[in-house]
Amino acid sequence: MDTAPSLRAGVVVWNNFTSGIPWLDHGIQLKILKLLVFFVVFMDLVSKPRGDT
Q1: At a CB cut-off of 8 Å and minimum separation 6, what does 1 contact?
Q2: pLDDT class for 19, splitting at 50, 70, 90?
Q3: Secondary structure class of 29 (helix, strand, coil)
Q4: CA neighbours within 13 Å on the CB side: how many for 44?
Q5: Torsion angle of alpha carbons 24, 27, 28, 31, nearest 10°?
Q6: Predicted confidence band at 12 (pLDDT cuts at 50, 70, 90)?
Q7: 10, burial (CB in 10 Å: exposed 0-12, middle 13-18, buried 19+)
Q8: Are 37 and 12 in contact (CB under 8 A)?
Q9: What is d(CA 53, CA 38) in angstroms, rounded to the nearest whole number?
């Protein structure tokens, strides 16, 4: 399972998101980051065919 490209994409999205909204509380940023990483990894797993390794 290769999650590096998806994770990299998530980090890029996160950086763009946080730089666009600098007033967000740090705790909220952390919660959103966890949710974003979970979503990116989950969607990567769901979108891959079952037999693909």
Answers
A1: 45, 53
A2: low
A3: helix
A4: 17
A5: 140
A6: low
A7: buried
A8: no
A9: 20
Whole-number Å distance between alpha carbons of 16 and 1: 26
Tokens of 25: 């509380």
Domain positions in the chain are 8-47
Q: How far apart are CA 53 and CA 30, in angstroms?
A: 31
Give the pTM: 0.41
Radius of gyration of the chain from its Cα atoms, rounded to whole angstroms: 13
Determine the length of the chain. Answer: 53
Tokens of 10: 């998530």
| CA separation for the pair 36, 29 (Å, rounded) | 10
